[in-house]
Amino acid sequence: MSIRLGLRENLGQFSLLVLVNAFVGAMVGLERSILPAIAEQEFHIAARTAILSFIVVFGVSKALTNYFAGHFSDRFGRKQVLVAGWLTAIPVPFVLMWAPDWNWVVGANVLLGMSQGLTWSTTVIMKIDLVGPKQRGLAMGLNEFAGYFAVASSALATGWFAARFGLRPEPFYLGVVYVVIGLLLSVFVVRETRHYVAHELRTHHPETGESRLTQGEIFRRTSLTDCNLSSVSQAGLVNNLNDGMAWGLFPLVFAAAGMTLVQIGLLAAIYPAVWGASQIFTGALSDKIGRKWLIVWGMWLQAGGIAVTALTADFMTFGLGAVLLGLGTAMVYPTLLAAIGDVAHPSWRASAVGVYRFWRDLGYAVGALLAGITADLFGLVPAMWLVAALTLLSGLISAVRMTETFTRGTG
Q1: Residue 328: which residues within 8 A CB-CB, separation 6 or more?
Q2: Pfam families given for it (predicted)?
């Protein structure tokens, strides 16, 4: 079989992976608009830190699984890791439907985090395998568009189901559908892509010392010692830190401002919908103008969106804050992944993606804990201002420390 790198050359398999990742994102969207309401109304949990505990365990389990997903996909193959992720997700919707206490919900989010780490990491790695060096930004934009537009659609759907039928169990029936379709597609239609890396190594990358790094060396480079890789990792962590805050606190902020369940579901959907849809354009844009300044200005725009939300109690202005936060995140999310692909050698790229995603998704846990503790001590609005300040600082770090990673004419 002839192997050719490129999006157009592998459009069928690439499109299938985009579809699979849409179902991966939809699983997270199940919880996006209604789980804080379930915590307050069904389990009578008042402390913000306790309510956000489901995001903490989700973030930690996803972060750790991300790290191992990159390594395992190199060792055992991408498809096997993808299928394992869907198998891990099977119990999640059933536990969310029938959980007798909050600890069961927290346990379901451990499984959801593990599943997301395996499935989403693998779809990212497989798309990078297929497209080669020339269109990474566009490829990551399409991948993240599918995932986060599905997050938004699922959040909107569960909000509507909750308003019409109640908080449980009906909204989580959707999760059963997502798992069944995602698993069947991954088992029977998705093909292994690891051999595309071998082809890229032969055609684009001669054997050097760069291709023989240990897992420890890859972790240190991606986390600390390489200015570009470590800048990407810290920006990813802060990006998901503010997303963890938005996931856990925004529904509570909206409810405190008198929004209905339908309005909360709509507001919870606007941010990931704008984020998801815009990534098609921002990912491709990074292939034309470069990665660095999209990352920097994206972080600063996110900080502005959080500030707008902190300053208002009005539905339309909440919507404006969500749009700004979504646009800023869209500028950053696919661009960070593309930058990893630019810098990391193909022989250890999957592992570097795993390390980056470890730090990025650890941001969920850090953000939920930080926002929850601050909200309990000082209130919801000060918690949002703290996260906005950290996001602004992250953009400044990237502006000072990063160099441009994209080289025009690559490949």
Answers
A1: 297, 298, 299, 300, 301, 302, 303, 304, 305
A2: MFS_1
